[in-house]
Every structure is written in C-alpha cells, then in structure tokens.
Amino acid sequence: MPIKETPDTGISYEKAMATLWSKAYELRALVDSLYSTFNSTNITDLNSYRVRQLKRMSLMVDSFIPIVVKRKDLISTHIIHRCLSDSVVAFFLIYDNDDPEKVLLRHYLYILDGNYDRNDAVGTPDFSIYPESIRDNAKVLYEESKKNYEDTMALCESKIKELAYYKANIAKVNDLISARNWKYQKIDEPTKRVSWKTLYSNSDKLVPADYTSYLSEDIHGLSFSVENLEPSPKNFAGDIMHVAYLCERLMNYMERRMGMLWLPQVQAYYDKITPGEFKPQSLSE
C-alpha cells in the first residue's frame, strides 16, 4: 500500500542518502570535537549541557542511517526521526535566543520539568513484592534517585531566582516555576504552553507540521503503523532529507551561537573518522 503522507522531495533515495551521510559525518566531527572539551555533567555548565544535547542528537542521526541502509525498517526510522525532530525544535526554543537570561530561564525550567516528571513517576514502590535478595538494594536505589531528583529541582529553582530577569518579574516567573513551563509563549501567560505542532510550524518549513504527527503512528504503535511494513525506496527519501536538514540546522546553530568554525583540530578529527558503515546503497540491493 503506498504511504501517501510521505513527503515527496523529488530526490532519489541514493541522492538523499549521500546527502545525509555527508551532513551526519560533518555533524559528528563538529560535535565530538566540542565534546572533547565541554563534557561536564554539571547542569550549571551551559556550554557542556548544550554540547551533551548536541551529542545526543548526533548519536540519533548515526543510529538512523544503518536502520535505513541495513534494516530497511521504516517504522524504526520514523521513531528516531520524530524523536530527533522533537529534540531539535526543543533545543532551538530553549537555546536559540539573544538574551542569555531567557536562555538560562528556559534551560533550568526544562531540567526542572524533567526531574519533576521522573520524581513523580517513581512514586513509592511496594518493596514487599521485590525478591528478598534485591529488596534492600532496591530501597537504597529508590532513596538515592528521589534525593537526586529533589536536589536537582531545588538547584534549578535557586538558579532561576539568581537571575536579574527573575528579580524584575518575580510573580510571573514564580508562576512559570510552579507550572514547570519551559514551553511558555509569553511570560504573562505562565500556564500556556506552545504546542509541538506550533513549534514545528514556526521553525521547520521543509516538512509540514502534520507529517510529524503522522510519525507518531509508529511511535505509539497505532493502527496505521501496520501499513509501513513493506516500504519502497522512495518512502525513505523524505525522512532522509529532513534528517539531513536537521543536521544542517544544528551545525548552523553551533556556528552562530557557539563560534564553532572549521578549525584545524576539527579537520584533524574529521580525517580520523572511518565512515564505512554509512556507505550509501540502494534499498533494492
């Protein structure tokens, strides 16, 4: 059955794959060069945190390619594509801003929100159902995890309250903290969140926002995912080109916001990479 919602780029699978390979190769070199310097796990180190986010997205691209080339698996391709797309638009919302205080505000709200969700999801386990051999260890891990989430949330809130932007907008930012709303549209509407569809519409013109919702069919195992079991090569081309475009956007960000240029040490790292596993080939082979 033809997958009619797959965007038609007018580009062959082979050309799309060659384009992505080139962009993924360059992105990995740039990110790994930065990661060799900025790799702290401290959330207050903004440079390292951004680079770790970029590293995560680069790894997703690297995983995307062999799934297409070797497995010919459109369902898993869609899952990584959607996860990468969400990651990119969130990254740009948080970190692509001329005002460093607003960057830090969203940065800490983003981390606060994630830790709150994890802390809430952990709940209070019924340890009586655990085998006796691991029960004590499970309790220790649970207590350590809860403390880590709570300490991180407290740190995020304290860092937000150090900002000059907070001191000029105390009541409004307190509402943002209470709502853990890093996707706020306006500070005057602290509980209103920008929708994912709006984020795509505002920042991504290559693929319609409705297509990203179509990718959710495979993520959530909905009925239409069954139609993607026997894709043709042309069904991959749109996803491939969009992932290549996301790579380009990330590299553009690094150059604009992080001063990342094609420095000699980056070229040296680039020259060391062996990309043999990413060699383009036809899906018909």
In the predicted model, the low-confidence regions spanning at least 5 consecutive residues are 273-285
Mean pLDDT: 83
Fraction of residues in β-strands = under 5%
Global geometry: globular
Structural class: mainly alpha
Q: Level of helix content? A: 55-70%
> CA-to-CA gap between the ends?
21 Å
Total of DSSP H or I helical runs spanning 4+ residues = 11
Oligomer: single chain
Largest sheet: none
Total DSSP E strands:
0
Helix-strand pattern: HHHHHHHHHHH
Which value, in Å, is the CA radius of gyration?
Answer: 21 Å
Keywords:
single chain, mainly alpha, globular
Structural summary, described in words:
By secondary structure, this protein is mostly helical. It contains eleven helices and no strands. It has helices spanning 13-35, 46-71, 74-95, 100-122, 132-160, 164-168, 170-179, 196-203, 209-219, 234-258, 264-272. 67% of the residues lie in helices and 0% in strands. Helix 2 (46-71) packs antiparallel against helix 10. It is globular and about 50 Å long.
